[in-house]
Structures
1.
Amino acid sequence: MNVLVLNAGSSSLKFQIIATDLDRIKQSQDQRLCKGEVERVGGEAIITFQAGEGAKRKFTASVRDVASTLDYLVRYIASDQSDVTEIKSTADIQAIGHRVVHGGELFSESALIDDKVLQGIEDCIDLAPLHNPGNIQGIVAARQLFGKATPQVAVFDTAFHHSIPDRAYLYAIPYHLYRRHRMRRYGFHGTSHRYVAFRYRALRGLTREQTNIITFHLGNGCSATAIKGGQSVDTSMGMTPLEGLVMGTRSGDLDPAIVNLIAAKEGLSPSEVESLLNTQSGLLGISGLTNDMRDLLAELKEHDDRRVRLAVEVFCYRARKYIGAYLACMGGADAVVFTGGIGENSPEIRARICEGMQWAGLEIDAARNEQTMGKEGLISSENSKLLAYAIPTNEELLIARDTVRVILGVPHPS
Ligand code: ADP
């Protein structure tokens, strides 16, 4: 089955086509036929495209909206120009899997999209006004292009965290705010945390029930999850992706009273403050330079700038604090797993986060850590009781696999 995986945002569209089925899943023989991204949908869009393991190409196209972008893309992929020999028309794409950001309390697992599910995703717009509308546009555009007979599946960023108990998801605010407006922790990056937990237990030959780990997704957005018995029992992002760890441009945890103070002192409206916390804070806010961790580490080596140093220190300190918190919440864990652009590629940040954790039995092996970049591997020392791993995430693969399993009515194993 060729599955088109779509991640539709307000002005961007990320896509992959993955050939997979139950046999291929069992043998880990799924094959990515192409992948890419369309940025600046609505104007002169920039398209990045890669067929198989071929060279990346970049070109532009004038596309109005998500529907015309998808139409353009599928035509391109089906043409000889694309070098994707497996796809010659829309009929060669048998299913579509969508990344959907917010499934609220409605969706605890991936769902076959019908009118009721689409309505459910619309009902969650209030919870993710910046994300769900783009996802819905992607679903509607795919329906138009492929017709209702082509099955579409929604894979939710929040679904993996459905198992979090009420003591961890409730905020200590008047309970009626939860009842009336569903204000609570939902958590995000669920597909990524779930995927690396699945890879961890495959690497160690464990069952899901034996999986007791703390996972860190450190990309532009960052989150940590406590996974006990294979289930998410707590996570750092909250009602929105703003809570928790320090991120590229987001503040993460802070005193809520600061929102009013910033508004009063800087003459900003509440939504302008929220935007400042989402787009001008985190690594960018502290360093005053960039949200890009690679650039910050390079700058640190060259100039040892004080604010750059602080940005990196605050980032690592906050992450370490979550290891301590989750060890306490879970009654201990077997491993810490790093993923995302930073978690997969930066031995330096992984080492800094785990610094001084010997008391908890966590000791990074310098050589293993340095050698494990962009690939799976153990990075803790022989003596370390709490293991550490780096595991590249692959959300698109999990979305494609869930799509197959949901269509065939097979329960998902992870
Ligand atoms: P997104 O969350 O948008 O998917 P990524 O997971 O690609 O983002 O992560 C982007 C982050 O990863 C950036 O801060 C980038 O600098 C960082 N990164 C990528 N490679 C490295 C590296 N070798 N060293 C340090 N940081 C890196």
2.
Amino acid sequence: MADVLFTEREIEEKVGTLGARIAEDYAGKRPLLVGILKGAAIFTADLARRIGEPAQLDFMSVSSYGLEASSCGKLTVKKDMDADISGRHVLICEDIVDSGLTMKCLLELLAARGPASLRLCALLSKPSRRQTAIEPDYCGWEVPDEFIVGYGLDYAERYRNLPCIGVLKPEIYKKR
Ligand code: IMP
Ligand code: MG
């Protein structure tokens, strides 16, 4: 890893701030937090514990290989959530929104299931890479167009368990 962007302490503070905002906005609504595997597993687990309100947890795994701005036909659901979301207040928890294509397609898919509300909470966002109009309703930090790892985010399944968030050295991914 080249540079630490956010320390463990800064992440803890940020997740606490997001959790407090969500608790206020969803008071009495028993939101369903849907973490997107695997990248958002750690974020979702921490965020859930910082929402001091009753909430439910579920997880989905989707793969977005080859998505295009014009078509969501290629979003593959590798693991669906267990919950029936009709009439529920659903908050998707994502690690990072990059082009926004995965979230655009996932939001379309979930909206069709009739939730009472559907919002997106992303720990990180790379606005300079966006190919869709998707903006997270809750966002931890905006980051530059660099490859980010740690706190759930991986490069080839490595670095997910780093407690901090950092930028990967370009020579690591240019070698391969
Ligand atoms: P999008 O469809 O382009 O927004 O892609 C989003 C997904 O790509 C995220 O859920 C991440 O899993 C992955 N991703 C995008 N940028 C990064 C990064 O810098 N580090 C690690 N994973 C990333
Ligand atoms: Mg992801």
